[in-house]
Amino acid sequence: MFDKISLFMDEKLSTPMAKLAEQRHLRAVRDGIIATLPLIIVSSMFLVIAFLPNQMPADWALTQLIRANAGTILLPYRMAMYIMTLYAVFGIGYSLAKSYKLDGLTGGILAELAYLLTIVPVTIPAANEAVQSMALESADLTAYIASMPGGFLIPATNLGSAGMFVGIIVSFFAVEVYRFTQKSGFKISMPPQVPASVARSFEALTPTLIVLLVVSSITMWGGFDVHGYITTLITPLVTASDSLGSVIVLCLLGCFFWSFGIHGWSIVGAIARPLWMVLLETNTTAYAAGEVIPHVAAEPFYQWFIMIGGAGCTIGLAICYLIRSKSAYAKALGKTAFLPAVFNINEPMIFGAPIVLNPMLIIPFILTPIVCATIAWFATVMGFVGRVVALAPWTLPGPIGAYFATGGDFRAVILSFILIGVSVIIYLPFFTMYDKKLLAEENEEIIAK
Amino acid sequence: MKVLFVCSAGMSSAIAVKALKDEATKKGIEMEVTAVGTQEFEEEVKNGWDVSMVAPQIRHRFSTLSVFAKEANVPCELIQPTAYSPLGGPKLLIQVMNLFEKEK
């Protein structure tokens, strides 16, 4: 009976839903954003360093040194995570073009062009006569005028996560224009003797022209504030994603897919990651500016408080397998699956235990993340632990990752250990039941022989 | 023979890779096995592999991935879920060998 239901659910529900996440535009967004993760991870570590003085004795020379130079230490972060959409857009354009079997480089460049055209460069007006005459009397004002940068400046605000959704939309537009010109033959073609790279640059002329004219007409000459408009549209979505309800729904979805053996988090992430990035980057920016950190549920929150040991917070199950196994199979699995679990790799548990299509373990697999999410949510909201501000590599052991993600908060380490304990407590009765069943089967086999 | 594994990030399948290698060594079969992530697969599969195996948790991407494999003339199959674990080596070896024999 259970087999029939699960087969039906898998064929009619989970696999088709998972395939939806494979839609080429969603896939392009996913791949484009994932490609930026290394620089987000590394540059957000600068943030942790710059704010270490909060955790250190104030009279240390090192504390004072870091504190005095915090702004300078953060400069690499400003050129990486702070303007992450600038990087993501290239990846999105590249991936989408590749998925159409078009030239990836051209797709990436067109997307980047379309995105930058949504941002209007500014110049700082030169000091007029009135200001200059005032400057004659004030050394401060003279120094201030002298410190003004010349030339064109690109405002960075919308190059970060604030511009993410505009970036996604214009990348789609740019690559679709590229595809259209290629498919319809509305392009400048070169005779076959011309080298491929030269021919390609000519082929890219028409889509470039269209992208340039259309986007500039809207944003620069038309003066339409796309970023402001999209932000108004997206804000309710961002607010909604930062609630306990949506955290639980996303956890449920992720675990639902995994229960059928499908990589749930890559599917949930394909849709939710742009929102998580907005939440995280808003937090990071507030943290870097020394302001109150606004959001709770950015991706690191899930990673370090809900998915300890992998999806389903299976670290508890791995511990049960390691130290409480009676059956030979569970013992053998515990030995090999525990270490990967410490580094949040839990496919050995999911397929080995197995959790997949195993109702006895699916129950705690879905229950544990919800309990952990609720505890962590209230612990964060009530201020017992810091909010997440940095992206740490997901393969770090839970407590260490929690420490980095919260910008070096020791209380997050304690919370991580508490949640690991909670996970053990929830998994243990189900594990014991299942282990008994395995043991009984093993004994039957021995008797049968 | 050369076997290419593909999973989400190329990490979890490393564990199945080890299980398969150990089993092959036990049976005296010479086997080179490597795991890659989905994004590297399209390029990597062109580099002279005998078979390619897709991890079960990304089976929703199987159709996309098998097209890449087909273009490179490399047989491609989805790993059975029960074989995808540290203890699944024997099952995995049988599946890989069957696929290899079938396509030879």
Topology:
The complex is a heterodimer of chains A (449) and B (104).
Chain A (H helix, E strand, L loop, with lengths): L1 H19 L3 H27 L10 H8 L1 H4 L1 H4 L5 H16 L4 H13 L5 E2 L5 H9 L1 H9 L4 E2 L10 H21 L11 H8 L1 H17 L4 H16 L2 H16 L4 H25 L10 H7 L9 H10 L3 H15 L4 H6 L6 H23 L16 H8 L4 H39 L1
Antiparallel strand pairs in A: 1-2
Helix pairs in contact in A: 2-6, 2-15, 6-7, 6-10, 7-10, 8-9, 10-12, 14-15, 14-20, 16-21, 17-18, 17-22, 20-22, 21-22
Chain B lengths: L1 E6 L4 H15 L5 E6 H7 L6 E4 L7 H10 L4 E3 L10 H15 L1
Helix pairs in contact in B: 1-4
Can you tell me about this structure?
- The complex is a heterodimer of chains A (449) and B (104).
- Chain A has 2 domains: 25-225, no CATH class; 242-448, no CATH class.
- Helices cover 71% and strands 1% of the residues of chain A.
- Chain A has helices at 2-20, 24-50, 61-68, 70-73, 75-78, 84-99, 104-116, 129-137, 139-147, 164-184, 196-203, 205-221, 226-241, 244-259, 264-288, 299-305, 315-324, 328-342, 347-352, 359-381, 398-405, 410-448, and strands at residues 122-123, 152-153.
- The radius of gyration of chain A is 27 Å and the shape is globular.
- Chain B contains 4 helices and 4 strands; from the N terminus they run βαβαβαβα.
- A 4-stranded parallel beta sheet of chain B has the order 2-1-3-4, sandwiched between helices.
- In chain B, helix 1 crosses helix 4 (89-103).
- Chain B is globular.
- Chain A binds chain B through residues 15, 18-19, 21-22, 31, 34, 258, 261-263, 266-267, 329, 332-333, 336-337, 340, 345-348, 350-352, 354, 356-357, 395, and chain B through 7-8, 11-13, 15-16, 39, 55-61, 63-64, 81-82, 84-88.
